Amino acid sequence: KAGVTQTPRYLIKTRGQQVTLSCSPISGHRSVSWYQQTPGQGLQFLFEYFSETQRNKGNFPGRFSGRQFSNSRSEMNVSTLELGDSALYLCASSLGGGLETQYFGPGTRLLVL
Amino acid sequence: AQKITQTQPGMFVQEKEAVTLDCTYDTSDPSYGLFWYKQPSSGEMIFLIYQGSYDQQNATEGRYSLNFQKARKSANLVISASQLGDSAMYFCAFTGNQFYFGTGTSLTVIP
C-alpha cells in the first residue's frame, strides 16, 4: 500500500505571496492532519480534517487554512506569506483519527524570502 | 491541558549498546495513546511504536520497546543493539483529541 505523499517537496516563495500544499493520504484513511515544524517552535499542530470537515484546529492565524476533498486528499493554503512561515510542513493520515496511529508523508520544505 | 516532555536534547550511544530515551506526559484523560516517531535528517516522521493507556503489557516492535509506567506518567523508548542508522531525532507523542509532540531527542550512535 502506498504511503502518504506530499507535493511539492520543496518550495521557495517571497513575502506576501500565497502557497498551496497538497497531501494524499494512505488509501482508506479518512483523517488528515497538518503540522508545521521549525527549529524554534518544534512540531506544531495546524488542523485535522475528517470526511471533508475540519475536526480540530491548532493555534495558528487565519492565514493558514485547509480543506479536504471527497477522496480524502487534503490541501493547505497559506496566504500573505511571512518570513516566519519558513518551515517543514508535514501531513499525516490515519484511519479515523482519535487514538489511532498517524502515518506521515515526507513533508514540504517551504522557504519564504 | 495535555503536556508531553522530553528532557534529553541529545544522547550518545555506542553501536550495539542499548539506549533509553525519556518521555513524560501529563493528562487527566483515562484513555489516551502514546507514540514514538523517528525523524532522520531527510525529514520524514517514521512511526516506531504505540502504547495504549489501557494496555497491560509494554509494547515491543523488533529492537524497540516502550517502558510504560502509568502511575509515573512515563513512556520511555528503549532501543536495543543500537545501529548507526538509528542516528536521528526521536519524538514522543501523546494523543487525546489531537496529537501533541515533545521537543525531541537527538540520538547519535557512535561506531
Descriptive overview:
Chain A is mostly beta strands. Chain A has strands at residues 5-7, 10-13, 19-24, 31-38, 42-50, 53-57, 64-68, 74-78, 87-94, 103-104, 108-112. In chain A, the strands form 2 sheets. In chain A, strands 2, 4, 5, 6, 9, 10 and 11 form a 7-stranded mixed β-sheet that branches. A 4-stranded antiparallel β-sheet of chain A has the order 1-3-8-7, with no helix packed on it. Chain A starts with a strand and ends with a strand. Chain B has no helices and 12 strands. With 111 residues, chain B is mainly beta. In chain B, the strands form 3 sheets. In chain B, strands 2, 5, 6, 10, 11 and 12 form a 6-stranded mixed β-sheet that branches. A 4-stranded antiparallel β-sheet of chain B has the order 3-9-8-7, with no helix packed on it. Classes of the chains: A mainly beta (113), B mainly beta (111). Chains A and B meet through strand 5, strand 9 and strand 10 of A and strand 5, strand 6 and strand 11 of B.
Approximately how much helix is present in the residues of chain B? under 10%
Structural class of chain A: mainly beta
- Taken from the alpha-carbon principal axes, the silhouette of chain A is globular
Poorly predicted residue ranges of chain B: none
The pair of chains with the biggest contact is:
A-B, 22 and 22 residues
What is the rounded distance between the termini of chain A?
A: 37 Å
What order do the SSEs of chain B take from the amino end to the carboxyl end, as H and E?
EEEEEEEEEEEE
